[in-house]
Amino acid sequence: MEGDKPLDDELQRLREERLRKLEERLMGTPGGVIEIGDAAFQKVLQEHHALVVDVWAEWCGPCRMVAPVVEDLARDFAGRVTFGKCNVDENPRIAASFNITAIPTLLFFANGTLVDRVVGALPKEAIKARVMRAFGTG
């Protein structure tokens, strides 16, 4: 049918977007957010001198608001600061070791040492300012 063209275009756009997200998850992209779990946490800390970890949960509304901000900042700071996310429900040791009692929580690590922490859903510019202060980068 002739009237289906916009729908076909929208379906194709959605397919391409889902494929891009799947590829990012599987392969990682420059400026992408990495998944961080209990098992590999120490290794990630050693490998990334400037690291921001978003501690979140699937059921957390404010966490879903922060996630796209973290993804944007990961692209903005690509090559200078690594951004990761840690699902608190799947990785309870990380949450316990940093006494995380509220999410979202962003943990800032410089050379393996915790240097800052943000609790709650802050706007992008506020988080960006904390990143720049923690790592001296712009």
Overall description:
- The protein is globular, with a radius of gyration of 17 Å.
- A 5-stranded mixed sheet has the order 1-3-2-4-5.
- It has 2 domains: 1-29; 31-135, Glutaredoxin (3-Layer(aba) Sandwich), CATH 3.40.30.
- The chain starts with a helix and ends with a helix.
- The longest helix is centred in the N-terminal third of the chain and has 23 residues, at 5-27.
- With 138 residues, the protein is an alpha/beta fold.
- Strand 2, helix 3 and strand 3 (82-87) form a beta-alpha-beta unit.
- The protein has helices at residues 5-27, 41-47, 61-76, 92-97, 124-135, and strands at 34-35, 50-56, 82-87, 105-110, 113-119.
- It is 46% helix and 20% strand.
- The chain has 5 helices and 5 strands.
The biggest beta sheet reads: 5 strands, mixed
Task: State the strand order across the main sheet.
Answer: 1-3-2-4-5
Strand pairing plus helix content: what structural class?
alpha/beta
**How many domains in all?**
2
Reading the helices and strands in chain order gives HEHEHEHEEH
In CATH's first tier, which class of the largest domain applies?
A: Alpha Beta
Radius of gyration: 17 Å
CATH topology descriptor of the largest domain: Glutaredoxin
